[in-house]
Write a structure and sequence with these properties.
heterodimer, A: 81% helix, B: 258 residues, alpha/beta, four-stranded antiparallel β-sheet
């Protein structure tokens, strides 16, 4: 019997599902689930991590993220405006900054802030202690990324918007603040939310600044517990708590993108 | 004192000289329509008046103020000049009312109540009082353009510039915008209008200026420019615009019927 094209497409599709399903089953069956759950899902160890896992570690992870985001957004906005400036030295500075900090690993920048700032300014301390160092250390890198995002957003606002505002007698600054930036921010909310998600994960690096029991965040907390209990269950707990932060944010991005799609 | 006085205006974009010596004055209460082919420099001329384009040389005075003077407070001059764009350029993140009030409040420092009252008056003037709470994206092109006119009028301008205000509109929406503009002209507003709407120019303009290739070729009352143009270039342009179905093959160098 000759296959119709439609029948043939269907057979190929079903065969694809079957191969995919079998491949997953094979991996799952091959794993040693007994020792895995023994190691990673020890209820007593997981329970022993609470409530500190939430009241200290999760809380600090969120605080570090928000501080670095606020710093990065502020500095990023200034850099974006400098990059779009008509003044050449400003453009040079912003471009050099962005290329530098986009090219360096966050961990390296954190180290440099942790060791370099006290050497550079021996008579003064970074305000806020570890919180201040984290804000600067993660924020410097975040600013470079956000500057590029914001610049793209500002450039996506049609030129006629600025012209119309100037025509009404607004100064350049007033037109930017009242007309261009509000529309630019709307455009960049989805990519900025992605930046928060990336920042949330980068807070796992702040242990290099030497955190204490009160400034500890999720990854370091899990690592310490792993060392004392000699069991990897804390890693699962920490992972789930990260998802508690990042999954809702992903949902927000998706909802915003759907809305933006409808408005076009 | 003339509302606009332009003398020997030149404007180049790189090597391309778009305006090649323009002399033009507009008297208070006059409605001057600028017509001409695309690329003739009409829009550039209009945009030089409020310095959206920086002239290369020459002088422009608006109500006696030399706008080409580097020390001129251009923001102050622009407050007195309303401008309407081909693409409307309404502020998309603001409601219609906010579009009409924001410059009143931020630039003229009017109170919220006063700005709101003046916005309502001007929206009523263009027939859109009931759309105050809508966003621009919810309006038709013709309605958006009427809001843009109301936004400019709310600043109490002594001069209105129109840059092809109906060129981006669907044909059935052109009339409502022209009606508003005709009403403004009847109220005595001084207007400089770049347009392709010949019927509007013929009926409403006090003077028609025909531009081609960066110079003013001919100007005069509409009856003269449309009825008995003296320049060959004007005649050819009007023939092509007013009777597009009668442009012959030989005129454009085609040889279809051979």
């Amino acid at each position: 019997m000759k296959l119709t094209p439609r029948r043939r497409r269907r057979i190929i599709r079903v065969a694809g599902y079957v191969v995919f399903g079998l491949a997953i089953l094979a991996v799952v069956a091959a794993a040693d689930w007994g020792s895995l759950s023994e190691a990673f899902f020890r209820r007593d160890i997981a329970q022993g991590m609470f409530p500190e896992a939430i009241t200290v570690a999760l809380r600090n992870t969120i605080v570090y993220t928000l501080l670095a985001f606020a710093f990065g957004l502020t500095v990023g906005l200034v850099l974006a405006l400098m990059r779009l400036s008509s003044i050449l030295p400003y453009r040079w500075f912003a471009t050099a900054y962005i290329e530098l900090f986009r090219g360096l690993p966050s961990l390296l920048v954190l180290f440099m802030v942790g060791y370099g700032v006290p050497l550079a300014f021996p008579d003064r301390e970074i305000p806020g202690g570890v919180y201040g160092s984290v804000t600067i250390g993660l924020g410097l890198t975040a600013a470079a990324y956000m500057a590029e995002t914001l610049r793209a957003g500002i450039q996506a606002v049609p030129k006629g918007q600025l012209e119309a505002a100037r025509t009404l007698g607004m100064s350049h600054t007033r037109a930017m603040v009242s007309i261009v930036l509000p529309q630019a921010f709307r455009i960049v909310i989805p990519p900025l939310t992605n930046e928060i998600i990336l920042l949330t994960k980068d807070t796992s690096l702040v242990y290099v600044l030497g955190v204490t029991s009160s400034t500890i965040e999720l990854t370091k907390f899990a690592g310490d517990t792993l060392n004392t209990r000699v069991n990897p269950t804390p890693l699962v707990v920490a992972g789930l708590l990260y998802l508690v932060i990042t999954l809702p944010l992903s949902q927000v991005v998706r909802a915003l993108e759907r809305r933006a799609g409808r408005e076009r | 004192m003339s509302t606009i006085e332009i003398s020997d205006l030149h404007k180049s974009f790189g090597k391309l000289e778009v305006l090649r010596g323009i002399d033009l004055s507009v008297e208070p209460g006059e409605v001057v329509c600028v017509i001409g082919p695309s690329g003739s420099g009409k829009s550039t001329l209009l945009r030089c008046v409020n310095l959206l384009e920086e002239p290369t040389s020459g002088s422009i005075r608006v109500a006696g103020v030399e706008v080409t003077d580097p020390d001129c407070d251009i923001d102050a001059v622009r407050r007195g000049i309303g401008m309407v764009f081909q693409q409307f350029n309404l502020f998309g993140h603001l409601t219609v009312r906010e579009n009409v009030t924001i410059a009143q409040r931020r630039v003229l420092k009017r109170s919220r109540a006063e700005a709101g009252r003046i916005a309502a008056e001007n929206l009523d003037r263009v027939g859109l009082a009931e759309k105050a709470d809508s966003y621009p994206a919810q309006l038709s092109g013709g309605q958006q353009q009427r809001v843009a006119i109301a936004r400019a009028l709310a600043m109490d301008p002594q001069l209105m510039l129109f840059d092809e205000p109906t060129s981006a509109l669907d044909p059935e929406l052109v009339g409502e915008v022209l009606a508003v503009m005709r009403g403004l002209a009847a109220e005595g507003m001084t207007m400089l209008v770049v347009t392709h709407e010949m019927a509007f120019a013929r009926e409403v303009a006090s003077r028609v200026v025909f531009m081609d290739d960066g110079v003013i070729v001919e100007q005069g009352p509409p009856a003269e420019v449309f009825g008995s143009p003296t320049e060959e270039r004007t005649r050819e342009f009007l023939h092509r615009v007013l009777e597009p179905a009668r442009v012959s093959e030989s005129e454009i160098g085609a040889h279809l019927s051979e």
